[in-house]
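One chain is below:
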Amino acid sequence: MADRSGRKPVDSDRRRRQIQLLIIYIVSTILIALLTFLFVKALISDKEELRDKGVAEFKAGNYEKAIEYFNESLNEKQLFSKKMDLDTKMYLGTAEIKCKKYADAVITLEELKKENEGSLDFNRVEQLLQFARTMSGYGKEDPESLIPDLEVAASNGSKSVYILLAACYYNTGNYEKMINAYKEFTNEYGMTNYVAYQLSSYYLRLNDYDTAANYIKGAPYGDDDLFLPELLYNEVLLYENKKDYNTAIEKMAAVYEMEPENEEFKKEYDFLYTRLYPNTDPVNKEDID
């Protein structure tokens, strides 16, 4: 039946369906917008910026600050960041070793070993992990008391313990056994910057500059950044001994740039500067750039 205007009454069920569809459309639009926002937010974070700051501090030798940035970066949630996180953990574990936080380094590197799908060198991760594991017990006990158990472990086939055993031999004055222990370690894992640094330092103290130079030349350098500045510092001392102050200060400037907060490096740079310019006051590198 039509009303007085001649129009038929609007079907109430049809109107109700239209309202329901409108509500569904509005809710769906809001949900899509929200999901899009959450997805974009998951893609964008401060993770990469924090990591970059950590890498910059790491390269400047500010390892404690680098550790802070790396941990903050890893705590940031971001999609598709697994590969970046693996690389960050590699930096973090190395920085923790540099700061002698060996127990922390063990945790970091064990996680890294489990998560590494092949984007990082497995041997490098394992080498750092074994170093952190062996050094984590160093300093907790008297080095001499550690030797018997370490020697038993070595005789049972554990090669990683040789690096800690060498440190214990050094601290007890058994230098011949120290050298042999380092040789056993490098026979298994290859020469590292840490071992080259320790052995070159030992021979420098004996004024055996030729043997020290051989260990410095045989180091992997850029392939192993652990203790690289310290190793290069020993190379500077070789040139200083030859009184080749021009080469020494050039190399020392590069070392000092790696760790500008290192007081020993600063003093060595100033010393070399006075050898080249004896009538001037020592200055820091940044003063003559």
In short: The first helix runs from residue 12 to 43. The chain has a mean pLDDT of 84. The radius of gyration is 31 Å. Residues 203 and 209 are 7 Å apart (CA to CA).
